C-alpha cells in the first residue's frame, strides 16, 4: 500500500513537471506584440532598456539606439518569458535570476527576430552625438499625463551623454504635458520638475526643464536657431537648450529640445532673475501677451487687458495679491501709453532690449510677433523685452497659416512693425525716430554678426 502511494506521488510529480515544462514552452511560443519586446542594450559602460517601435507604413519594427551605442553595442531580450528568441538565426539570451543570457551584436540595418512564436523584421538605427534622456513614470504609462493638461506624475530620470558618461539621474517630482495648440499634437511637449536640481544643460543646477517636441516644425530647428541667435545678439535671459533623444518608459519618443524654462523660481542660465517679496506692492514681475482666445485665457489665473485691447498674463509673481495685481497692470499700462504717445525716453523702458527683441521678431518673421508667447519683465522699475520663446512658426515655416495677408516664406519686408488689431506695440515703437535709430544700431552691431 505504501509502495502504491509512493508510485502515485512519483507519477503526480512527473505530471506536474511535464505541465510546468509545457507551460514554459507555451509561454516561449506565445505570440508577442512588438511593443512588449524590450531589449537591454549595452555599450561604453552604459545600459538602457528599449522597446521596439512598429512602423505601420512598412510593417517593420524599429530599434532606435541612443548615441552611446557605438559599434560595440550588444543586446539581450529583457523579457524572461520568451526563451526561444533568435536574432538572425542565433539564439538570443534572456535575463533571469540566475544569469544574464547570451548577447547579440547590434549592427545597423535589417535583422530577423523570432520571439514569442512570431517573426519580425527589425531595423536597427542609431543616433549620433546627441545625449539621451530616459524618463520613467510611476504608472509606467503616459495615459493619465496626456489625458488632461495639468495632470502630472512622479517618476525617475537618467541622462547619458553620447560617450556613455552619466550627466545626471534621480527622481522626477512632477512630469506633465504642456503647450497650447501643441498639446493637441500626437507628439506632445512636456515639463519635468526634478526633486533635486541638476545641471543637465551645463548652465547651473535647475529643477524645472522643458522638453519641446517641435511637432509643428518639421525641421525641429527653428526654436533652437532663434534662441541661440537671440543669445548671440545680447538679449538677456535667452534660453539655453540642447537636442536629446527622449525615451519614456522604454519607448523611443523622438528628437526633443531640452530647454530652460522662462521662469523666475530659480536664477542662473537664461532664467529671468527678478526679485519678488511677499507683500511688497511695487514688485518686479514677468508678464506675457496672449491671443484673444477665451479658452486659453481661462487657463490663466491672473491676467488683465490694456486700453488697446491687449491681453496680458501675469506669470510672476505666481500668486500676486490684489495690490500687486493693480500695480503690475498700471505699470504695464503706463508703458503702453508712453509707447503709443511716442514718449519713451523717460518712461522706464530699456530701449536696447526692445530693439533687440524687435529685430529677433522681424528677422525670424515670427507669426506670433505681438500676439502670444511674448514676454516682458520689470526689474527695479525698468521694463525689459524678453526672453524669447516659441518660434516654431517662424523662418518661413510652411505650416504657417496661408490665409494671412503676409507671405511668411518671403524673407524680405516688414511684418512685426505693421499695424495689427490689438497688437500694435512694435508698430507704435517703429514710428518713433529714437527707436528706429536704436534698431539700426543694434542691427549693425549685434544682429548682423549673430
Order of helices and strands: HEEEEEEEEEEEHEEEEHEEEHEEHHEEHH
The overall pLDDT, averaged over residues, is 87
How many strands, what sense, and barrel or not for the largest sheet? Answer: 7 strands, mixed, barrel
CA(first)-CA(last) distance: 97 Å
List keywords for this structure.
alpha+beta; 22 strands; 450 residues; 8 helices; seven-stranded mixed beta barrel
Can you walk me through this structure?
With 450 residues, the chain is an alpha+beta fold. The chain contains 8 helices and 22 strands. It has helices at 2-29, 143-147, 222-232, 294-298, 322-341, 351-364, 425-430, 433-447, and strands at residues 38-43, 46-51, 53-55, 60-65, 74-77, 86-87, 90-91, 104-105, 109-115, 118-126, 132-137, 152-160, 166-177, 190-198, 206-212, 241-248, 251-259, 285-290, 303-305, 311-316, 374-379, 382-385. It has a 7-stranded mixed barrel. Helix 6 packs across helix 8 (433-447). The chain is elongated, with a radius of gyration of 28 Å.
List the helices and strands and how they pair.
Blueprint: H1 2-29, E1 38-43, E2 46-51, E3 53-55, E4 60-65, E5 74-77, E6 86-87, E7 90-91, E8 104-105, E9 109-115, E10 118-126, E11 132-137, H2 143-147, E12 152-160, E13 166-177, E14 190-198, E15 206-212, H3 222-232, E16 241-248, E17 251-259, E18 285-290, H4 294-298, E19 303-305, E20 311-316, H5 322-341, H6 351-364, E21 374-379, E22 382-385, H7 425-430, H8 433-447
Amino acid at each position: 500500500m505504501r509502495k502504491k502511494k509512493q508510485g502515485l506521488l512519483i507519477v503526480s510529480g512527473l505530471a506536474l513537471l511535464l505541465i510546468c515544462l509545457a507551460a514554459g514552452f507555451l509561454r516561449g511560443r506565445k505570440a508577442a506584440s512588438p511593443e512588449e519586446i524590450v531589449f537591454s542594450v549595452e555599450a561604453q559602460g552604459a545600459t538602457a532598456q528599449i522597446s521596439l517601435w512598429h512602423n505601420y507604413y512598412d510593417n517593420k519594427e524599429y530599434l532606435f539606439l541612443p548615441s552611446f551605442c557605438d559599434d560595440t553595442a550588444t543586446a539581450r531580450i529583457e523579457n524572461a518569458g520568451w526563451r526561444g528568441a533568435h536574432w538572425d538565426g542565433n539564439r538570443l539570451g534572456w535575463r533571469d535570476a540566475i544569469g544574464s543570457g547570451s548577447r547579440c551584436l547590434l549592427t545597423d540595418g535589417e535583422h530577423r527576430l523570432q520571439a514569442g512564436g512570431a517573426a519580425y523584421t527589425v531595423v536597427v538605427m542609431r543616433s549620433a552625438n546627441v545625449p539621451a534622456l530616459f524618463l520613467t513614470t510611476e504608472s509606467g504609462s503616459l495615459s493619465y499625463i496626456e489625458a488632461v493638461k495639468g495632470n502630472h506624475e512622479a517618476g525617475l530620470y537618467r541622462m547619458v551623454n553620447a560617450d556613455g558618461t552619466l550627466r545626471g539621474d534621480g527622481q522626477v517630482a512632477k512630469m506633465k504635458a504642456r503647450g497650447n495648440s501643441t498639446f493637441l499634437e500626437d507628439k506632445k511637449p512636456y515639463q519635468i520638475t526634478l526633486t533635486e536640481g541638476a545641471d543637465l544643460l551645463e548652465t547651473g543646477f535647475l529643477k524645472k526643464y522643458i522638453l519641446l517636441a517641435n511637432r509643428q516644425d518639421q525641421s525641429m530647428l527653428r526654436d533652437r536657431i532663434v534662441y541661440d541667435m537671440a543669445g548671440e545678439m545680447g538679449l538677456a535671459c535667452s534660453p539655453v537648450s540642447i537636442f536629446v533623444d527622449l525615451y519614456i518608459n522604454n519607448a523611443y519618443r523622438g528628437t526633443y529640445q531640452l530647454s530652460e524654462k522662462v521662469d523666475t523660481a530659480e536664477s542662473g542660465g537664461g532664467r529671468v532673475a527678478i526679485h519678488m517679496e511677499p507683500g511688497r506692492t511695487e514688485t518686479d514681475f514677468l508678464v506675457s501677451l496672449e491671443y484673444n482666445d477665451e479658452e486659453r485665457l481661462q487657463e490663466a489665473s491672473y491676467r488683465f487687458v490694456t486700453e488697446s485691447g491687449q491681453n496680458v498674463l501675469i506669470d510672476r509673481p505666481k500668486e500676486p495679491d490684489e495690490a500687486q495685481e493693480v500695480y503690475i497692470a498700471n505699470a504695464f499700462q503706463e508703458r503702453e501709453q508712453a509707447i503709443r504717445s511716442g514718449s519713451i525716453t523717460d518712461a522706464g523702458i530699456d530701449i536696447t532690449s526692445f530693439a533687440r527683441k524687435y529685430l529677433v521678431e522681424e528677422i525670424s518673421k515670427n507669426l506670433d510677433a505681438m500676439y502670444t508667447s511674448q514676454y516682458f519683465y520689470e526689474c527695479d522699475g525698468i521694463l525689459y523685452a524678453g526672453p524669447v520663446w516659441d518660434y516654431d512658426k517662424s523662418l518661413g515655416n510652411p505650416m504657417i497659416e496661408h490665409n494671412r495677408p503676409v507671405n511668411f516664406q518671403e524673407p524680405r519686408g516688414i511684418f512685426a512693425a505693421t499695424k495689427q488689431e490689438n497688437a500694435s506695440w512694435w508698430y507704435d515703437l517703429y514710428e518713433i525716430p529714437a527707436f528706429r535709430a536704436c534698431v539700426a544700431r543694434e542691427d549693425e552691431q549685434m544682429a548682423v554678426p549673430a
